[in-house]
Amino acid sequence: MSHPVRSTLLTSFLVLILQPAALLAQARSFPLPAGLESAVEFWKQIFTRYSFDEVVLFDPMEPGRIYTVVRAPEDEQGRALVENEKARISADYDLAGKESRIRSQRGAKEHFAEGLRIAGRYLAEMKKIFREEGLPEDLTYLPLVESSFNIRARSGVGALGMWQFMAETGKKFMRIDGSVDERRDPMASTRAAARLLKQNYRIFDKQWPLAITAYNHGTEGIFRGVKAIESDDLGELIKGYQSPTFGFASKNFYAEFLAVVEIAAQRDVYFPFLRPHRPLLLREVDVKRQVALHAVLKPAAISQDDFFEWNPALDRDIKALPVDYRVKLPPHKLEAFVAAHRRAVAAASKKAAESSVTRAQTRPRRASAKSATPSTARPGVKNSSVRRPQQPAKTPAVGGRTAVKVAS
After folding, report:
1. What distance lies between CA 306 and its chain's CA centroid?
2. Which of 75-84, 222-231, 310-319, 389-398 is predicted with the least confidence, judged by mean pLDDT?
3. CB 57, CB 67: distance < 8 Å
4. Of 28, 84, 153, 332, which residue is the least packed, with the fewest Cβ within 10 Å?
5. Could you give the 3-state DSSP secondary structure of residue 402?
6. Are 116 and 259 contacting, i.e. CB atoms less than 8 angstroms apart?
7. Rounded-to-integer distance, Cα 336 and Cα 300, Å
8. What CA–CA distances, in Å, run from 105 to 38, 89, 347, 376?
9. What is the CA radius of gyration of the chain?
10. Residues 331-373: tens digit of each pLDDT
């Protein structure tokens, strides 16, 4: 006996698991705007097919249109080779005066694979943070577009960390000062990125294409574009909005994201022999008292290299642990660090108390009234017989106690 309902469910399930991940993303949270299909496929090829020594020459208006691929080193000779190839393409395709229709992009297969490997250190905790913020976990793959999960990546304009925050924006979500820059901290910056993305999502009426593009381009820039073309469709925005600041990187940011989500979902297909790094498991300790760094690390048997590797947000030139910083440590170093920190705090408190006592003891004493006041008695008359005016009674402090300043 056949079961049409069961057969329909099975068919739907098979279609779901066999369709491309880009369509799965569309069915879940991240729609694929019309016109971006070729851009997504282009970036998939850049990230998975073409190596670093290969330069792809293509039409940026239609990324699926690849003119040619040349092997060229990243040096003067290689750049000259690429320029000669552009000139040839311009002549062959009758693009004189339309050189903007020819763009070069170096392959990123090795760079992308390394990013996937490094991601293994952080993704489990990052996905947990995004779940806590009520956001889709696939957003944790954005650093593959931004930095390939390099926590020390720095752009030419000053964006820093795996999430590439500018300092001005980062200060709204993280601690950034002379001792600490949490843009380099993988989890603190992930929490900040989640909150910024959530903010963008609300601002743009729950439209992820605009919210994600705004992460790269800025909310004000996207608002200007939407207003200029009178449409909130990202595909229309890319085709119709002309601005010197809304360039190739911003226009392709969402397409790159969809590409990396698909690749990550099918990592074993695109990179069958890739082995991610093991997850980095760290615990946190609140620092409420400032102590010298050497007074803690040496007794805890922690090298400075290891300590700053676990705490990349800290400036390597610091001499003392910043107050209110949460120190990151592997579990096997936690107990030794806490004990060393307590001893260092106790020693510092004892030294401060001893210094206070020493200052009090060496402070010049005020002369007594008897020795300081010249005698006013007449010759032959004892001082004790001289009657002095009665002094007014002292007003007691609140509660009957005299206020006393205690040295700290």
Report:
1. 20
2. 389-398
3. yes
4. 332
5. coil
6. no
7. 5
8. 15, 15, 59, 101
9. 34
10. 999 999 999 999 999 987 877 676 666 665 666 665 544 444 4
Token match 């098979």: residue? 14
Q: Find the helix or strand (DSSP H, E) in which 329 lies.
A: strand 326-329
Residue 297 to residues 181, 340, 351: CA-CA distances in angstroms?
21, 8, 20
Return the C-alpha torsion angle 304, 306, 312, 318, nearest 10.
Answer: -10
Nearest to 118 by CA among 281, 280, 286: 280
- The three-class DSSP label of residue 286 is strand
Residue 247 to residues 54, 218, 237, 259, 291: CA-CA distances in angstroms? 23, 13, 12, 19, 48
Q: Which two tokens stand for residue 201?
A: 């999502």
The residue type at 72: A
In angstroms, the Cα distances linking 6 to 11, 17, 18 are: 9, 17, 18
Q: Please state the pTM of the whole predicted model.
A: 0.79
216 neighbors 237 (Cβ within 8 angstroms) = no
Which helix (H) or strand (E) segment holds residue 64: the answer is strand 62-71
Residue type, 316: R
pLDDT (mean) for 103-127: 98
Contact present, 56 and 107 (Cβ < 8 Å): yes
The two beta strands, 326-329 and 283-286, are antiparallel
Instruction: Count other C-beta atoms under 10 Å from residue 209's C-beta.
Output: 25
Half-sphere exposure (Cβ direction) of 43: Cα atoms closer than 13 Å: 24
Give the rounded distance of the alpha carbon of 76 from its chain centre.
34
Model confidence at 397: pLDDT above 60: no
Tokens read off for 353 = 């108390």
Q: Residue 368: CB partners within 8 Å, gap ≥ 6? A: none
